[in-house]
Design a protein that fits this description.
Blueprint (H helix, E strand, L loop, with lengths): L1 E6 L8 H5 L12 H19 L6 E7 L6 E4 L4 E8 L5 E3 L5 E4 L5 E6 L15 E7 L9 H16 L6 H13 L1
Antiparallel strand pairs: 1-2, 2-8, 3-7, 4-5, 4-8, 6-7
Helix pairs in contact: 2-3, 2-4, 3-4
């Protein structure tokens, strides 16, 4: 499964000033703002890769090589905008919504399942022939669980100070795992 960002989030999970104000960082001035913004972006990408979820509400195209049931797409709070497939002629055809069900119960992923008695259409036999356009992620910074924010801060702290005795991802993953498992 690959994915491509269609519409980015309108917010970041943490503000740079909030990161700088953390007692474990104690950063003053604006000299480090660009570096902290890059580290925040790295932390978000890292979280999304490890958790297979989307942190801040945004729209994505998620690609599959074929229909399978269920199709697993990132969450949380997932809505399915469209489910399409390449019909073999290079043209995307939209799948009738009556053929599938989206189960987006609160968790870090959602499932698109075929309804009983229905059959998936036949896509082209090629990579990325099925595309699910989803909107997923927390709706605001305040909706993001504290444990995830703390994991992001720990990751940023390790990158900023470069003093970790373990890879930055190891301790950050412990914070992420508490919320997604």
């Amino acid at each position: 499964m690959g994915k491509t960002l269609v519409t980015p989030a309108e917010f970041k999970p943490l503000e740079i000033e909030a990161i700088k104000d953390r007692p474990e960082l104690r950063i003053t001035g604006t000299d480090s703002d660009l570096v902290l913004a890059e580290y925040l972006e790295a932390a978000v990408e890292h979280f999304q890769e490890l958790s297979r979820s989307i942190l801040c509400r945004s729209t994505w195209d998620v690609y599959f090589d074929a229909f399978e049931s269920p199709l697993i797409v990132p969450g949380p709070q997932t809505t399915l905008e469209a489910l399409s497939y390449d019909d073999g002629s290079g043209i995307l055809q939209e799948v009738d919504a009556s053929l599938y069900i989206l189960d987006a119960t609160p968790r870090t992923w959602a499932e698109i399942s075929l309804r009983e008695g229905c059959a998936w259409p036949t896509p082209a036999l090629q990579a990325n022939s099925v595309v699910a356009r989803i909107t997923a992620g927390y709706a605001s910074p305040g909706a993001i669980p504290y444990k995830i924010k703390q994991g992001l801060i720990e990751f940023i702290q390790q990158l900023y100070f470069g003093v970790s005795t373990e890879p930055a991802w190891a301790s950050a993953w412990a914070g992420y795992r508490r919320i997604i498992c």
